[in-house]
Amino acid sequence: MNDHRVLNALSYFSILFAPIIVPVLIWIFAKSEEVSHHAKVALLTHIIPTIAGILSFSSLFVTALLNGGIFTGMSFFLTGSLFIFTLITVVGLFIYNIVRGIQMLCAKKEEDIWI
Question: Which positions carry the signal peptide feature in this UniProt record (predicted)?
Answer without folding.
Answer: none
